[in-house]
Every structure is written in structure tokens, then in C-alpha cells.
Write a structure and sequence with these properties.
With about 140 residues, the chain is mostly helical. It has one domain. The chain is about 70% helix and about 0% strand. The chain is built from five helices and no strands. The protein is elongated, with a radius of gyration of 17 Å. The chain starts with a helix and ends with a helix.
């Protein structure tokens, strides 16, 4: 009975993580290119600078979501929570996102996607960690 409940809980976490990755990715696009963050000097686009469309960015989700779920699995984010501390969970999320971004950046390099925004990647990294931490802590309560 406990194993069945744990399997169900892990499946819920996988679906929740996939949704969080997609939401964080789309929010990052909005924040990076469409919102007030575009006016902050770190993220400011040059007047003549063009950026890729949402279609191009969204097409990368086909690779990004399975990649992240694979990395989450190998960083022990889907193990039973009975013996884990919350700080261990947060640390594992940070490590998983670090490796996820590293692999995703390598993927972009191999497909020669040079116009991908570095600010977008960094903002996605931070936003995904933040939303994942909140989601994990909320489900552990």
C-alpha cells in the first residue's frame, strides 16, 4: 500500500515538474522580452537587436522537458520523501537545474543556435529553481 502511494506521489511530482518547467520557460520569455525587465540595464536589448520568436523558443521545450525530468530523476528528486530534509530537496533542485542548463546549453551549441539569449537561459535557471522549490515545499506540507 505504501509503495503504491509512493508511485502515485512520484507520478504526481513528474507531472508537476513538467508543468513547472513549461510555466517557468514561458514566464521567462515574457519577463525577458515583453515586460519591464527589458528596461533594466542587465537585460536591455539594443534598439536594433532582434530576438527569436516565441515559436522558436517554445519548440525547444520538446527537448528541455524530457531532459530536465531525466536530470531530476538522476539527482534523486523522485525518491521517497520520508527520510529527506527540506534543505536536501532544495539543494537537489539547484544541482538538477545546474546540470539541466549545462546540458541544454550544450544542446544549443550542437544544433548551432547562436541567437539564443543568454539572459533568457540565466533567468530561466533562476525562475525554475524558485518555482520548483515552492512547488516541492508546498507538496511536502
Amino acid at each position: 500500500m505504501i509503495k503504491d502511494n509512493q508511485k502515485m506521489f512520484n507520478r504526481l511530482h513528474i507531472v508537476m515538474d513538467a508543468a513547472i518547467i513549461i510555466i517557468a520557460y514561458l514566464l521567462t520569455f515574457y519577463f525577458r522580452f515583453e515586460s519591464f525587465l527589458n528596461q533594466i540595464s542587465v537585460f536591455r536589448l539594443a534598439p536594433s537587436e532582434k530576438y527569436l520568436t516565441l515559436d522558436v523558443y517554445a519548440s525547444r521545450l520538446i527537448v528541455l522537458v524530457p531532459l530536465y525530468l531525466f536530470v531530476y530523476y538522476y539527482t534523486n528528486l523522485y525518491t521517497p520523501k520520508r527520510v529527506k530534509h527540506r534543505w536536501t530537496e532544495i539543494f537537489n533542485i539547484i544541482i538538477a537545474n545546474f546540470f539541466g542548463i549545462a546540458f541544454f546549453t550544450a544542446y544549443l551549441f550542437f544544433i548551432q543556435q547562436k541567437d539564443y539569449s543568454r539572459g533568457f537561459v540565466i533567468l530561466f535557471f533562476l525562475l525554475n529553481i524558485f518555482i520548483s522549490d515552492i512547488g516541492r515545499l508546498w507538496t511536502c506540507m
